[in-house]
Amino acid sequence: SATALEDLHDAFVTIHEEVRQEGSEFDFRYSLVDHLFTDALGWSRTVGDGHVNFEDERKDVLCYDDSDPPFPVIVCETKRPSHDLGLDDVEQLKTYMNGVGSADYGILTNGHEFRLYDYDGNNRELSVIDGFEIDTVAEADFEALSGSQRTALDELERLHHNRFVDLGDAE
Q1: Block mean pLDDT (10 aa), the chain, length 171
Q2: SS percent in the chain: helix, strand, coil, step 5
Q3: Which pLDDT belongs to residue 168?
Q4: Order of all β-strands in the sheet with 72-78
Q5: Residue 169: predicted pLDDT
Q6: Residue 10 and residue 146: Cα distance in Å, rounded?
Q7: Measured between alpha carbons, how far is 165 from 162 in angstroms, rounded to an integer?
Q8: CA-CA to 85 of 20 to 30 Å: which in 24, 79, 92, 147?
């Protein structure tokens, strides 16, 4: 929906304003969780409600469903803003996802670049769904976003909290 897209855009505008090039991965991670996962995508901070959590061993941010016990459904690997994302980072995300096993989606981001991946646990394969430059998206007015930028934001809707909770109550 347009409102959801606008919320996602607002989240990235705020993250962009808060990310400092010399900032730590830790600072950026808080900004990402607050603005993207909690505000725009509806994840809770309460265990059992479909929650987002920091750093389980080395995995930076994990989103869990509302099963008992909760299963990780999204793995987000963050890098400090001064770090350029490379193949090693993709391999690291894939290793984390293999370890988690239950997650369908992976994210790799350094606060400037944002990449969304689909994970096939049976074949242990990670494939790119979409990606975009946060800076470019955040510096554009919502109305001025290009078709591909809107599509990339729209892809993030598949990470919305509602898709992973109350699955037993679905019509």
Answers
A1: 90 91 78 94 91 75 92 93 94 93 94 96 93 95 95 93 73 39
A2: 45, 25, 30
A3: 52
A4: 52-56, 59-64, 72-78, 105-109, 113-120, 125-133
A5: 46
A6: 16
A7: 6
A8: 147
